[in-house]
Design brief:
Blueprint lengths: L1 E6 L9 E7 L7 H10 L1 H10 L7 E5 L7 E8 L9 H18 L3 E5 L10 H14 L7 E6 L2 H19 L1
Parallel strand pairs: 1-6, 2-4, 2-5, 5-6
Antiparallel strand pairs: 3-4
Helix pairs in contact: 3-4, 4-5
Length: 172
């Protein structure tokens, strides 16, 4: 499975699956969720909310609507609203469950943001390490390409550095 770090707007990406950094309510507010909602249309939020709330670390799947994808996997790495922040465990569980659900869907490509590291307040360096470790530990079946996406230059440099370190540890 190919694994790379890219920079850009997740809502402008093309893949079988785009991953939303969701809260347990599945309400699509700001950050990654807001970008996806604005590009996909309000119906994605409506479909997501109908499936919520979900447990911390769990995922839900919706249509991608006006996005260039088949599905959006909403990964609940943080509680919603105002009742706590993301944790190492919630990020690991959300990432693992996202990859497993993508395989169940038969997806070949997936774009995932730094779950829990934005409005959820988790340290980007540590969060990126957890996400990269989960991706590299994943035994791919249908998934051929996983891209971790960063929006800002600083986020991109941090995730890229962490990914290189995690790859080095795995091969060493």
């Amino acid at each position: 499975m190919d694994f790379e770090v890219i920079q850009g707007d997740i809502a402008a990406q093309s893949a079988d699956v785009l991953v939303n950094a969701a809260g347990t309510s599945l309400q699509m507010g700001s950050g990654v969720a807001g970008a996806l909602r604005r590009a996909a249309g309000q119906q994605i939020n409506d479909e997501a909310v109908e499936q919520g709330p979900i447990e911390l670390g769990d995922v839900a799947v919706t249509d991608a609507y006006d996005l260039d994808a088949e599905w959006v996997i909403h990964a609940a790495a943080m509680p919603h609203y105002g009742d706590g922040l993301a944790t190492a465990e919630s990020i690991a569980d959300a990432t693992k469950n996202t990859l497993e659900r993508a395989e169940e869907l038969g997806a070949t490509s997936l774009v995932i943001p730094a779950l829990g590291c934005g409005v959820a307040g988790f340290d980007l360096d540590e969060g990126a390490r957890i996400i990269c470790e989960q991706i590299l530990a994943h035994e791919a079946d249908s998934l051929e390409a996983v891209r971790v996406i960063a929006y800002s230059d600083e986020e991109y440099q941090t995730i890229r550095s962490v990914a290189a370190d995690v790859r080095g540890q795995k091969s060493g």
